[in-house]
Design goal:
This protein is of the alpha+beta class and 305 residues long. It has a single domain, classed as Aminohydrolase, N-terminal nucleophile (Ntn) domain (Glutamine Phosphoribosylpyrophosphate, subunit 1, domain 1, 4-Layer Sandwich), CATH 3.60.20.10. Helices cover 16% and strands 34% of the residues. The strands form 3 sheets. Strands 1, 2, 3, 4, 11, 12, 13, 14 and 15 form a 9-stranded antiparallel beta sheet that branches. A 7-stranded antiparallel beta sheet has the order 5-6-7-8-16-17-18, with helices on one face. A hairpin with a 2-residue loop joins strand 16 and strand 17. The longest helix has 16 residues. The C terminus is likely disordered.
């Protein structure tokens, strides 16, 4: 299994990531030695840095730590190989161009059978490496290509969310399917199941969520392995395990969340229709009331399975 980190903010934040420290949060220190990567969005493009070396051995890690990189969208990944060799092409996140912008993807889990599945055969997009995760990404983009048809024309939230939801449902049938996917505007997070060091079992939650409004003059988000300096910003974080002592919300098994500029855009539970938000809400609203801040814009029959 691997470790994931995703960030969406309503304004550029200085994000310093220490991947060795992030890997240790999974309480299996020293096991994430098969590669790492981090992608910072720069408009429609991505500043992607990755390596096949262990996170503790790579000189590129020191480079990242010494630069105050700013972005509104970040995805990071540390790898423990289950499929494919330890090599640069197999390191995550993966990036591809579609409709004139970079699409970024990282996955945590093992998907036996994906190479034989008729639903995940590569078409326009093909893997460079050997992993099940990259094949899954290529299959997702093949589906996305049906709605991302014109350079500069962005499909609706509903169109994008329903494609990702259908993809996630099929991926869950193959194995643990925690993933982060970003199209340069929306950050999608899908929580499923992961290996928990405390129990030794593969079980939910697969991802955790923290939303924070950083007021002007306040300290940003500081954790062992993560520092976010911001000024009057709304920040939403996804991670495999909680990174701070604050209250993180576990994503339900099979839950899909889309965020834009740090704000919830849509959520869907397994067996339910998606909910699309018409105004910004935060996780505290959701925890306090099922109805607070929600716009019940649902579509009959479009249920996650």
């Amino acid at each position: 299994m691997c470790e994931l980190l995703g960030l969406s903010s309503n304004a550029s934040a200085t994000v310093n990531v220490s991947l060795p420290k992030l890997a240790e949060h999974g309480r299996v220190s020293g096991t994430y030695n098969d590669g790492w990567g981090v992608g910072y969005y720069e408009g429609a493009d991505v500043r992607l840095m990755k390596d096949s070396a262990a996170v503790g051995d790579s000189e590129w890690i020191q480079f990242i730590a010494s630069h105050n990189l700013r972005s509104q969208l970040v995805i990071a990944h540390t790898r423990k190989a289950t499929r494919g060799t330890r090599s640069y092409p197999n390191a995550q996140p993966f990036v591809r161009e579609l409709a004139g912008r970079a699409h970024l993807f990282a996955h945590n889990g093992d998907l036996p059978g994906i190479f034989q599945s008729s639903a995940f055969q590569a078409d326009r997009f093909n893997p460079i490496g050997e992993t099940d995760s990259e094949l899954a990404f290529c299959a997702l983009l093949d589906r996305m290509a049906a709605i991302w048809t014109v350079r500069g024309a962005v499909p609706t939230l509903r169109e994008r969310f329903l494609v990702v939801s259908s993809f996630a449902s099929q991926l869950r049938a193959l194995g643990p399917a925690n993933f982060l996917y970003c199209d340069g505007g929306l950050l999608f997070a899908h929580g499923h199941r992961r290996m928990h060091a405390e129990t030794g079992k593969i079980e939910p939650p697969g991802l955790m969520l923290l939303q924070r409004h950083c007021q002007s003059g306040e300290q940003g988000i500081v954790a062992d392995g993560l520092s976010i300096r911001s000024d009057d910003q709304l920040v939403t974080l996804f991670a495999s395990v909680p990174l701070t002592s604050e209250r993180w919300e576990p994503l339900a098994e099979g839950e899909l969340v889309a965020v834009s500029h740090g704000q919830f855009a849509a959520r869907q539970m397994v067996g339910e229709s998606p909910v699309f938000y018409e105004r910004p809400v935060d996780s505290l609203d959701r925890a306090g009331s099922n109805d607070a801040g929600r716009a019940f814009v649902t579509f009959g029959g479009e249920l996650a399975s």
